[in-house]
Amino acid sequence: MVGLCDLYYLDESGFAPTLPTGYTWARTRVRALVWDEPPQNRRLNVLGALAPCGDAAGLVWTAPTAKIDSATFLEFVWRDVAGLPAAPDGLPAGYRRARPCIIVLDNASAHTSKVVKAVLPALDAAGVTLYYLPPYSPELNRIEALWRHVKYEDLPVRSYRTLDALRTAVTTALNAHAPHPLDATSNLAEAA
Q1: pLDDT band for position 181 (cuts 50, 70, 90)
Q2: pLDDT tens digit string along 118-170?
Q3: Rounded Cα–Cα distance for residues 155 and 177 (Å)
Q4: Residue 79, SS3 per DSSP
């Protein structure tokens, strides 16, 4: 298997209690009313990694209860994406993945912090490379189409009264995409 690698596109997405409304109907000359739930401490942040092809094709994701910071990001990378047996600084000497793992991501502060930069040599030694996209180029990150699809197509209810209801809806949608994440978004790419 010379020359093969595991390729992932990683990004975060936030889900608010009231999601964007694509359209609505109302009687002529009557203002349409759309329920709006203020997001006060009820925003759901999701960290996901999309493997569009290969043996690892699929979607891995997590919705931590705390804010997504550098520590949460690194734990997701080494445990869920790269599948390392321990944190990068705790790997046995000389440990290397069977296949290189390349993770494509943006320049969010949680991805480029001093904490992350300090761990980069250990990740690289284990066969995990973080490839940073140019600034302001979300069109190059393939997981962006999936996030858009989930927000606008997979969540038919546009306003959730509780964080648990929102979490359940997002979990159901992402679990449906986990084995074949690009099936639903391929038509969107073709239409564009």
Answers
A1: low
A2: 999 999 999 999 999 999 899 999 999 999 999 888 987 878 888 899 999 99
A3: 13
A4: helix
Q: What confidence tier does 1 reach under pLDDT thresholds 50, 70, 90?
A: very low
How many other C-beta atoms are found inside a 10 Å radius of the C-beta of residue 123? Answer: 22
Token pair, residue 56, equals: 């690892």
Query: Which residues, 6+ apart, have CB-to-CB distance to 52 below 8 Å?
Result: 7, 9, 142, 181, 182
Which run of H or of E encompasses 9? Answer: strand 6-15
Q: Are 48 and 177 in contact (CB under 8 A)?
A: no
Asked if pLDDT for residue 185 goes beyond 80, the answer is no
**Cα–Cα distance measured from residue 143 to residue 147, given in angstroms and rounded to the nearest whole number:** 6
The structural domains of the chain, with segments of one domain joined by +, span 6-17+40-191
177 neighbors 143 (Cβ within 8 angstroms):
no
Q: 164: how many CB neighbours lie within 10 A of its CB?
A: 11
Distance of alpha carbon 84 from alpha carbon 123, whole angstroms? 9
The CATH H-level superfamily of 6-17+40-191 is Ribonuclease H-like superfamily/Ribonuclease H (3.30.420.10)
93 phi-psi bin (left φ>0, alpha ψ -120 to 50, beta other): beta
Predicted model pTM: 0.83
